[in-house]
Amino acid sequence: MSDFIEARGISFSYAMEDDPNPIRVFEELDLKIKEGEMVAILGHNGSGKSTLAKHFNAILQPDEGQLLVNGMDTRDNNKLYEIRQDVGMVFQNPDNQIVATVVEEDVAFGLENIGVEPAEIRRRVDDALERVGISEYKAHAPHRLSGGQKQRVAIAGIIAMRPRCIVLDEPTAMLDPAGRREVMKTILDLNRNHGITIVLITHYMDEAAQCDRVVVMDSGNVLLDSNPKDVFSHVKMLKSVGLDVPQATEICYEINKAGYPMPTEVLSIKECADELQKLIERTYAAKRKAAKLSQKK
Amino acid sequence: MLKDITIGQYFPGQSFIHKMDPRMKIISTLLYIVMLFLAGNLMGICAGILLLILMYQLSGVPMNMVTKSLKPVIPVVIFTSVLNIFFVSGEVLLKFFFIEITREGINLAILMSFRILCLIAGSSLLTYTTSPIELTDAIERLLNPLKKLKVPVHELSMMMTIALRFIPTLIEETDKIINAQKARGADMESGGLMQRAKALVPILIPLFVSSFRRADELAMAMECRCYRGGDGRTRMKQLQYSHRDWIALTVMAGAIVVVLLLNV
Ligand SMILES: Nc1ncnc2c1ncn2[C@@H]1O[C@H](COP(=O)(O)OP(=O)(O)O)[C@@H](O)[C@H]1O
Ligand SMILES: [Mg+2]
Scanning every residue of chain A, which has its alpha carbon at the shortest distance from the alpha carbon of B171? Predict the structure, then answer.
């Protein structure tokens, strides 16, 4: 698989009008994202995740270094719209990214902007609505939908443009658990069944655990970058930068710390339950053995 | 409580009038208003009322919606009637002290009252049978020729669309802020006018702040979706005049001719 997004030593700072010292967000950052990957980006508030995400579709441009999207430099202003078609962006608050007063009109918005033929827009809008499972609401007003449905409208608006990559900046932060599940299911389907590269910025560790790769950021640096099992085994390091681990991992970690032979590379509740059962069976068997031995004596 | 407010008063349906092209609905409404003002006598106004009843029957919008739409204009009607009755000179019918009531005054008062009532009922039919988005869309397309005169037609219609999109969101937010301030002990219902106006400040300030943040985020989301103004933009829904629209246009033109004939 080839690199789809490649950051080569990028630096960025926000220039402030009334402050001579600009806020430096990151310096000399390197990061590669392969085509078809599903990558989670973790980090506490203010660690620069959103700023980095905005570099991926040329909303922000690096002060130094180079950011390539599908071989195009984001500082090349002629490629701006090509890059934004390739890399779609979904934000945290679904209310603030829906433009039109009817669901299907909103999904069509991006396609109208890039001048697609009306019949083709119709086809792609219906297709996108179908794919995120909100076809039945296509004539509704967006404010009548639930949070999860609104966020799926936003996702439909992006996938209608047939991007190769979607960057989602905390898309589930404002949703209830049911809405969160709906959105995660949609994202996973897009990645697994349609090969769309996903960059998911999130605060929920169980969401990150479902990705292929987890990148942990801390004050503008990449702290960890590996598969979820490996990343979440660094419980201490994650806690030191203000992050959690998935609940299942935490339980196993604590049991292990208490001195029992429990593996710490566990992500899902099911794995955790299985390991716990094994542990209990092993301890029980050992106890029985010890009891038998003492009886013989 | 604020949630019950609806903007526009769209009455969904499948009637002849609902299915008309929104552009022709606007044109027809304008022609109807022209007709009302061309009508110089009661016969002409009667023709206008007849046409109005016919249109409402055709649209399937219940007649009690008409009375609902007319209620707010009744003071205006009374006011203009009084002005006309007392201040138009002509053949005197009644005279108290210095006030004269003339035949011409009464005639004009009746004419004006029915004109205003028909005008409101007629234009309400437009909003009853056309959704806000169709309306903004149609206005954008009707005004399109003005682009040559450097009128920012696309921008204006985008502003209207976004306003329509955000009114329900902001109403919901206002509701939340009011509840939050009430929970902190704010008192909004008692006191004089000044006190109540002051009580609005802690509601308006958070609303303004959040509106600016919303605007900021929306602008970025639009940029991410390749928005760059009206140039080179296409639309998913194409508007197309059909036989219905030509029938409507003919009827309206016919009505104007009838009114002109009744005038002579
Ligand atoms: N528009 C902005 N102007 C100035 N500073 C900003 C702006 N956006 C973010 N920052 C600052 O940049 C840093 C990184 O923010 P951000 O990328 O939003 O982090 P995260 O998304 O990880 O919470 C923070 O210190 C924040 O205060
Ligand atoms: Mg952020």
Answer: A143
DSSP state of A297: -
Count of other CB atoms within 10 angstroms of residue A119: 10
Domains of chain A: 3-245 (3.40.50.300), 246-297 (no CATH)
CA distance A233 to A117: 51
Contact B4, B175 (CB under 8 A): no
Interface touch B233/A113, C-beta < 8 Å: yes
CA of A14 to the centre of ligand 1 (A): 8
Q: What is the mean pLDDT of residues A168-196?
A: 94
Residue that the structure tokens 């007649």 belong to: B63
Q: What's this model's pTM, rounded to 2 decimal places?
A: 0.84
Distances from the Cα of B200 to the Cαs of A231, B5, B176, B181, B209, in angstroms? 51, 19, 14, 10, 15
Q: At what angle do helices B103-129 and B74-87 cross, to 10 degrees?
A: 160
pLDDT for res A87: 96
Cβ–Cβ contact A89 with B under 8 A: yes
- The environment of the single-atom ion ligand 2, i.e. residues with CB closer than 5 A, is A 50
Ligand 1 first shell, C-beta below 6 A: A 14, 23, 25, 43, 45-51
Give the single-character DSSP code of B50. H
CA distances from B46 to A290, B115, B123 (A): 107, 10, 17
Cβ of residue B217 closer than 8 Å to a chain A Cβ: yes
Task: Give the model confidence (pLDDT) of B43-83 as tens digits.
Answer: 999 999 999 999 999 999 888 888 888 888 899 999 998 88
Domain spans, chain B: 1-139+238-264, 165-233
Q: What are residue A222's DSSP bridge partners? A: A217
Structure-token pair, residue B99: 């006030």
User: Does the beta-carbon distance from B227 to A89 stay under 8 Å?
Assistant: no
pLDDT band at A54 (very low <50, low <70, confident <90, very high): very high
* Chains A & B: contacts with CB separation below 8 Å: 94
Task: Give the whole-angstrom CA distance, residue A135 versus residue B203.
Answer: 37
Q: Which residues of A touch B7 (CB under 8 A)?
A: none
Q: Residue B253 contacts by C-beta under 8 Å, 6 or more apart in sequence?
A: B31
Question: How confident is the prediction for chain B on average, in pLDDT?
Answer: 88
B214 and chain A: CB distance < 8 Å anywhere? yes
Residues 137-166, chain B, touching A (beta carbon < 8 A): 161-162, 164-165
How much distance in Å is there from the Cα of B5 to the middle of ligand 1? 37
- The answer to whether residue B5 scores a pLDDT higher than 60 is no
Give residues with Cβ within 8 angstroms of A16, minimum separation 6: A22, A23
Distance from the alpha carbon of residue A171 to the mean position of ligand 2, in angstroms:
10
